[in-house]
Every structure is written in structure tokens, then in C-alpha cells.
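re: ur question from yesterday

yeah so i grabbed the chain u mentioned. its 213 aa long if i counted rite. heres the sequnce exactly as i have it in my notes:
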Amino acid sequence: MTRALGVVGRCVAGAPATFIWLAVLAVTTRVQRAAGRARSQLLRNQSTNLNHLSNEPTRVLAASLFWLDGSRWWPYVPPFVAVLAPAERRLGTWRWLVAGTAAHVTGTYVGQGYLRRSIRAEQAPPRLADAHDVGVSYFLLGVAGTLSAYLPARDRARLRVAGVAVLAANAVVRPTFTEIGHLSAFVTGLTLSPLATNRERHPYPGAEVYARH
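ran it thru and got these C-alpha cells back, copy pasting raw so excuse formatting
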């Protein structure tokens, strides 16, 4: 038991931002469940929709990362543990934050830009300018793209192409601003692969490493 607790402690200590963020999401998910009928307006106030991006972009770009568009928190634990935490350990907190934030901002603006064009072309209803758009998916996919630089060299290119292909196919089948944003976020993460140093020494998946934070 003591040994297991030690392993968990080192795991959390090696990726502090990941687990603090996960804890905050647990709290905000409880808050929105308790909000009842006010839940929809609560989430809309934190959303990176077209209206908010025009008036208060900095606030909503930050706030939207701390809310989930759903009442369940636990499904996010596996991707945080399997993707975000290993990435933070390898990249260090600051490079991890740069990769994720760049993907979040890019995915948001590309997705909402697509929505704006769709509304102007009368291919989407104008009410979507005030749509819900919160969550961690753009940040997560961007970090996953950068983390993929740590994959074994023999598999890296093939798996990256497969990831882009899946997200692109999803965007074609379901051409919503969210799916366009997902593809853009992942591609952004791929372009930030230079942040992934010591990739041959610290492959993913592989032994846990702890970068200087």
C-alpha cells in the first residue's frame, strides 16, 4: 500500500497542472449539475462562441477550459492520465501549456470562423452565434499531437497520418465547428513537435520521465 501511494504521489507530482486542472473540472461539473435549469445559461456564459469572441475573447478562452459540456466528469480521467499527464512529464509544464493553449486558441478560432462563414452562407442558423462551446478537447488534441513526437520512430509517421485522417474524415462526415476545431487543434499540436525534446530517450508509451517544470 505504501509503495502504491508513493507511485501515485510521484505520478501526480510529475504532472501538477494536469491533476490540478482535473480537480477543478470535478468541482465545476458538480456546480453545473447543482445549477438545475440555470445550467444552460451558466455554460453559455463561459462559451467561446462568436458573440463572446467578439466582445470578451480573453475571458472566454480561459474560462471555457474549466467547464465540461456534460454532467459526467469521470470519462475525462483516462485521457488526462494517459495523454495529458505523460505529456506534461516529458515536455515540462510550460511547454505543455504552450502546446495546449496554442491548439485551444487555434481550434477555437478556426472552428468559429468556419461557423461564421456557414451562417453568412445561410448553411447554419444564426442562433449558433450564441452556442455552447466549452471543454478541454482542443487542448487535449493539441497536446496529443505534440506528444506523438515521442512515439517510436518506426510508427510515428503512420500513426500521425492515421490521426489526421480520422479527424479529417469526421469533419467531412460531420462538418460542424467542433469537428473542424478538433482537426485544427491536432494539426497545431503536430506543428509544435519541436517542443518535444529528448524524444528518443523518453519514448511514449514508455518509462515515466520528469522534465524540468
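noticed a couple things. The chain has a mean pLDDT of 92. also The chain has one domain: 2-195.
anyway ttyl
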